[in-house]
Amino acid sequence: QAPEGFPPLWNEAAVRVLRGRMKGIQGHCNSCYMDVALFSLFSCTSVLDSMLFKPFPLCDRNVQSILRDEIVNPLRKTGFVRAGSVMHLREQLTEKGQFSSFTNAEKDPEEFLNLIMQQILGIEPLLKLQSEKRKEQQDGYCHQIIMDKREDLVVPEVQQLVEHSFLASELKLMEIPSCFIIQMPRFGKQYKMFSKIIPSLELDITDLLLNSPRECCVCGNVATLEC
């Protein structure tokens, strides 16, 4: 355990601490969905550090301390988290949620995020989306990329996948999110939609925002129509 706080890893420090054998979060008993989510959310970014310290109205302090002292701080300090620490968190999630299989079954990352952020910590939704077809507002904590297989996208970038997913689902962001968690396309042992996905180091959400001023691709002035 590492009760003192550690900042997220950056640049050369991230490479030095996180690269090599016995690094990352140790997997055990179908924990991969949770391991990769926790690593992505906390290893190299502080955007969700409020989850570790802030006393939200519905916040479960025990779960918060396990997350902070047994997982995030050791990950940032030594680059390694043992499976027992994650199992401790999974046991608490099983106890707090209505699901008995958090300790042994593979879950959907979105299910895990919704449980820990909404029900256990009481965080307001990070994303406010509007369906252009139904004109309904949808609140959530992450966006799962859902799209059909495209032959022209062999090794896509995250930017391309997000744009295609929003277009296919007819969704728009109602506001700029403070944190944009994106779940990549699913794959299993028998099928992979993409063999590789190139991370986009920056994400342009101009075309994804509702009622955002945009540039005409012909003349360069402010656009008045969308194809």
Automatic annotation (TrEMBL):
One of its GO terms (molecular function) is cysteine-type deubiquitinase activity. GO terms for cellular component: microtubule; spindle. Pfam families: UCH. Residues 24-205 form the Peptidase C19 ubiquitin carboxyl-terminal hydrolase domain. It comes from Thinocorus orbignyianus. The gene is Cyld_0. It is found in: Cytoplasm, Cytoskeleton, Spindle. Keywords: Cytoplasm, Hydrolase, Microtubule. Its main location: cytoplasm. Gene3D superfamilies: Cysteine proteinases (3.90.70.10). One of its GO terms (biological process) is protein deubiquitination. This is CYLD hydrolase.
